[in-house]
Design a protein that fits this description.
Helix content: 40-55%
Radius of gyration: 31 Å
Shape: globular
Largest sheet: 6 strands, mixed
Number of strands: 11
Distance between the termini: 127 Å
Structural class: alpha/beta
CATH architecture of one domain: 3-Layer(aba) Sandwich
CATH class of one domain: Alpha Beta
Strand content: 5-15%
Number of helices: 14
Order of helices and strands: HEHEHEHHEEHEHEHEHEEHHEHHH
Length: 405
Amino acid sequence: MKRAVISVMLVLALVVTVVAAACAAPKPTPTATPRPTLAPTATTAPTPTPGVGPTATPGPTVAPTVGPTVGPTAAPTPTAVPAEGKVFKWTFANVGPPPPGAIQPYVHLSLEELERRSGGRIEVQVLWEGQHPFKNPDLIGAVKDRMVEASYNMVDYISAVEPIVGAMNQPFLLTGGAPEFWWIWDQIRDEAMIQPLAKNWNQMPLFDFILPDLQAFEAKGFIRNAEEAKKLKIRAYGKAQADQFDIMGVPSLVVSWGDVIPGLERGIIDGLAISVAGSYRAKMFDFVKYITRVPGWAYLPSFTGLNLDAFNELPDDLKQVVNDFYFWARDYSANYVIQDDAYYNMQAMINSGAQIASMSPSYIASFRPKMEQTWDKWAASVGPQGPPLLDKIKTLHKQWEAEHK
């Protein structure tokens, strides 16, 4: 009996020893499942979502064998500068609401491309309307004094304080649309924009752009002819545009942008002149259902200005990036406008119940010669440089027409 008890105790002691040893032994370290290796992010231009911008990443416009491109021939896309050295931080004052309601989406998308091209050495903070204290006419001065490094500037406003930049903004001065515009603009740009901006406003254009043949009257009725024009009161942004409408036989009233929708709601105005895209993004389709497109009404509505001190602080390689970016952004915005505005927004307006027509050629022909008085008034406002510049544009226009019959 005693031997049996001892045997049982020995067995129990052995079991306890084994268990204790097992508990004391370190647990095997589990093999971690390796995370998938991510491929390097491709360096590409910003591609807007379908239905908001171009469906493909825009690239340089390839010049056709005959005639000019829609915009200037873009500089080749350079390899992004290595992300090393000082980071230059800019603030860009934009107009309108932020995405997704941005009126000019190609502006902030272009700035993202500039950041990419700089290899991250230029960072641009975009402030939207309401996030900065400036009204549209004040933006050029804000850049001059470097309250911000860059801004969106509307030529309609800027030409009031620097008339020469409105050289291509004269109504119905050209007839060849966007191709003629770019061909002439590239020959007068230094005189009409580069020099005066640098001399008087301490800035340079980061890029500029037009709305080619997409300007329209959007109102509570069509303006296809003189009879229809008499029936509607159209919003003008200022006296210069009101004078132009008067020549066309279109009654007008000067109304600020912020009062446009209240004016439409209350019947103070019946419509306005605006791009199809701007109208759609501003939800004008709730108030205007008749869109009258105006062939040949191509002009330079806006440019983005960059403070010269901010530019001159850059090292030479980044200065080259900015200079090359000008051509890329100009083509990108032109292609964006053509693809997005001409198709997507036009279709969206139709889907919202809008009707679209074109102003008759005979109506345009009836008032176009009278517009010359507004061209002369603009030239006089520029000073001694104005009349010769206007003559140069007219001469180039005749040359264009002769070569494109």
